[in-house]
Amino acid sequence: MSWKITVLAPRDVVQAALIAHEDVFDWDGDIVIAGSEIAEDRPDDWQLEAWFDRKPTAADRAAIAALFVDGMPKPVIEKLPETDWVTLSQAGVEPIREGPFHVHTPDYAPLEEPGVRDFVIPASLAFGTGQHATTAGCLAMLAHMKAQGVIVRSLADIGTGTGLLAFAGLYLWPHARALASDIDAVCGPVMALNADTNHVPLGDGPGKLAMVIAAGTDHPLIRASAPFDLLIANILAGPLVELAPDFADSVVPGGSVLLSGLLTTQEPAVRAAYARAGLRLAARLTRGDWSVLWLRRRSRGRIRASAVGKLPEWSRRW
Known about the structure:
Elements: E1 2-10, H1 11-22, E2 32-39, E3 42-52, H2 58-65, E4 76-80, H3 85-90, E5 96-98, E6 101-104, E7 117-120, H4 133-147, E8 154-158, H5 164-172, E9 177-182, H6 187-197, E10 209-213, H7 220-225, E11 228-234, H8 237-242, H9 244-249, E12 251-263, H10 267-276, E13 279-287, E14 290-297, H11 313-317
Helix pairs in contact: 4-5
């Protein structure tokens, strides 16, 4: 049995509710919420949706209402048919192009163009088909990092979902050791199937991808594999802030951290957390209301060179 509560409100009200949700430390993990535009031609009219695997109780309704500081507009509570809503929402989505990447569901044909890497990502219970602005923005930023001469020998994709960003990282840096993790156990078989479909080799070693189920960096394999040259995390602003010290410790001096899943309104708090952890902004881009951040860890050692021209290119720009 599935139920949903829908609240219609202006964009800033829904976004404020989403931010408030991230600050609730004892939030019931069985209640999944999301905010979105009602329609493309109505960008200021949003909806907050909350899904339940049970009929919402008075306590459930109160938890949703508490997210709205000035009072919750009248909600719509409905029982849903037995449907895989994630799959349904992703079915038939249009392919995207970002840098050298073409991401599409099996409903669409590959481009088969020189220099274009096709990824087939079926709709599934795991998020990350590439159509969401944050995932697409991360693909664009990865391509930018490669163009800027970033060298990656090891990478980690924390909160990997379908595995797409880890796949993209291995395409750009094909000799890197890669590790992908997610807190949701359903992502394990989903990512493994997607890796097989897209001919991404699994395992431990250069050019291969390992997968673990873990919260943040809390896994023996992640700790043993660190520090990384590149850490990717397309999750949520709250966990990004909380994990800033762990992420900073998980990359080499001068290494890169790619963050997304945060609204532009949440960007100052996220950037402040990473500045305190010893990282500084290298580049940013926005997609709609979402931010994508490329950060680099400060080098704690001295860079020694016989001449300025001997310094690494990224050091001169930084």
